[in-house]
Amino acid sequence: MFIRSVQRRDDLDAFRQEVRDFCRTEMPPEVRRKQGRGEHLERDEYDAWMKCLGSKGWLTGKWPKEHGGLGWEPERFLVFEEELGRASAPPIITFGTALAGPVIYSFGTSEQRLAYLGDIARNRTWWCQGYSEPGAGSDLASLKTRAVRDGDHYIVNGQKIWTSYAHWADMMFALVRTNPDVKKQEGISFLLIDMKTPGITVRPIIGITLDHHLNEVFLENVRVPVANLIGEENKGWTYAKFVLANERIHGISVTKFEAYLAKIRRLLQVTRENGRPLAETATFQRRMAELEVSFATVKALMADQLAAARTSGAPPMMGAAALKLRGTELQQAILQTGVDILGRHGLAYQSDALHTGWNGDLIGPQESPGLIYEHLYRRAASVYSGSSEVQRNILAKGVLGL
Amino acid sequence: MPSFSTDERELLQDSLETFFSEQYGFERWHERARGNALGFGADMWRSYAELGWLGVALPETAGGAGGGLTELAIVMAASGRHIALEPLLATIVLGAGAIELAGNQQQRESLLPQVAAGETLLAFCHGEPDAGYARHHVQSIARASGDGYVVDSVKSFALGAHAADMLIVSARLESENGPVALFLVPRDAAGLALTAAPALDGRMGAAVAMTSVHLPAAARLGDESDKSDVIDRLLDRGAIAVCAEACGAMAAATVATVEYLKMRQQFGQPLSTFQVLQHRLVDMTLASEEARAIVHAALEALDSDAADAQRAVWLAKVQTARSARFVGTQSIQLHGGMGMTDELAIGHFYKRLSLCETLFGDSDWYLSQLGMAHGGVAAD
User: Fold this and answer.
1) Interface with chain A: mutation pick from B358, B359, B369, B377, highest number of A CBs within 10 Å
2) Per-residue pLDDT at A254
3) Sign (positive/negative) of CA torsion A356, A358, A364, A369?
4) For A205, which residue in chain B has the nearest alpha carbon?
5) Could you tell me if A103 and A109 are in contact, meaning their C-beta atoms sit under 8 angstroms apart?
6) Dihedral sign of CA atoms A359, A363, A364, A367 in order
7) pLDDT higher at A313 or A176
8) Do A145 and A172 form a contact (C-beta atoms < 8 A)?
9) Which residue of A has its CA nearest to B207?
10) Which of A373, A374, B61, B101 has the fewest Cβ atoms surrounding its Cβ within 10 A?
């Protein structure tokens, strides 16, 4: 079909205003300041903000009402995201709300729903994702972390890697191998693991950003109650794919792009070449126009995929793969433009300036450390939650039937 | 310009490779980079001096080996291949270059032997906050005072400035329209403030502010005539030096990536067996070789004082920046998560290449300069 009808919505203005007012009154000034400069927030700062959103039910606005959500349609969620972005609100760490929660209410038992969903919605528990392993990256299904049944427990042994915020997490949702003798996708189970269980060791990985948010997680004879198994044993891969599709859609945030672009526009004003603002140079006028075209295209693709999902029930993996691929490319292109501007200031990278309490002298524009951090960190955007190569494979199979 | 014979160049490359392979393993990189305030190995610097590399492009009368820019480029390429941290660019390319091109006989004779011997670290502090990559936007001012000058200046972040014994600072004489002069400024001069910081690639540098710094007349390099031409030539030297460094880093990053994909198993086979990845590795190799070829061409033009030498450097800088961006980003991409860690060398190659891309002007800037030369239209 050449044209898919996109639903027009003009009944969301009141909601938009409500979110805007909420951000203005509820967001602590210190958090606003840090966000403006791209400084790191402490766990407590994230936690307070997410609890604040949780108190309105907004953290899980998209969840169905029967599971404690507000049943938001995609358009309402986009308005919510846009306003959070405009207010420079901290990003919502979505391992609980967008990944663990939906799996639990879709495939979990009523006991599991009762045990976890309320705490996720109020951000009383922090979650992390135990998927990748040293030997299982793009080939995730080859994972080896072993779970062996022992009465009413599983004994889990193995290692997870690239686990974001594992050092802050209370719970991990993990893929484990429960049957090594069948096709690799058919011997995987989905477990919820309490991070305080004896036998779990979290070791930091320092990134090229020089920051710690990734970890290795070692599991040694970790006893996990069978009650923490999601759905059926050996059906975990089905649930995992569901999470991955969600993760890919969530990774693309239009508001984040808008926030980057706003920073870059300011940088173009404050950075001069031969005494003139870069914003007045033909080179950067053209580059900004190129980014604008790509951004408009990604937004249009997103709206189109939403419309497709609504009308034809198209499989979400297709739209997710396309958006992840193009969204990632755009994100990296925007950030590279920022760094190209900062090259004119000599490309100092004062990563310490991103930490609470730093009081050194900043070299170059105030956005500099935060933007370089983000640029370095987002080199991983074409690697994490399914590399760009994997997304192309998904599209080749799923769309072209190859 | 003098230069080495082919045999001598091969000897130089061999000695660099032997030294770096034996003495400069990546396993000690973090300690060298972060274990002290210099951000590099003082012991390594002494070795460079003993091996004759600091004076490779200096005249024999200054204790050098009498080589040219090609020999300097060979040293820089090795520095890129091993992501060396020492301030070669700041001291032996820019600093010594400024003294050689602008200094009087007395300055050359006293300072260049110190550089060759590894006794003096230099830095070239020319770029200013409002200049961007423009080469002659100098707002620093040096006013005559007594038998010397009083200098006020703000300079952008420059690699190696944090450790330099002597900074070479550009400033206009008397007024904003005055001729540009270059001054030797000792690091302990009253009124000089250095803000040290790491660059994106982990090497250290500093931003410089000078407030009413008194300098003797003898601190001025050479006479009072405008030194814009010298600065132009220096920046071209800097540009080709970082191109050579990028070539070394690209070659090493490409080899490391090929090796990694041969070793890394996914879907029951080495990643190197996937055609899409094979093609990527081929493109990285090509990009790396293209850069090396055009950098070589520019070096030939420079060392033979060809009329179009500057243009050759600018073409090389654009192509090297293109190649560096592709090779750098793909090195990380193909290493997956491992490429994102501080622990592995590959991320450091990426960062070094990012610096090489931008130093002395990025591809956008040189393209607009080259474009202007074609159309004669003043664009940026």
Assistant:
1) B358
2) 77
3) negative
4) B341
5) no
6) negative
7) A176
8) no
9) A363
10) B61
